[in-house]
Design a protein that fits this description.
56 residues; alpha+beta; two-stranded antiparallel ribbon; 2 helices; 4 strands; 18% helix
Length: 56
């Protein structure tokens, strides 16, 4: 299952830089995870300063 980014996202972009498959991009007001590309590695979770990223 792909990770998801909640509304707690502050659009800092730290998660996008940590994604090895470039599955995270800037969305409308927060970053979003492309579920088709996400390999569920969890690298982004540790980078998020607000804890907005969770496994679905």
């Amino acid at each position: 299952m792909a990770h998801k980014i909640s509304d707690e996202c502050i659009s800092c972009g730290a998660c996008a830089g940590s994604c090895p498959v470039d599955a995270i991009s800037e969305g409308d007001g927060k970053y979003v995870v492309n579920a088709d590309t996400c390999i569920d590695c969890g690298a982004c979770e540790g980078e998020c300063p607000t804890g907005a990223i969770t496994a679905d």
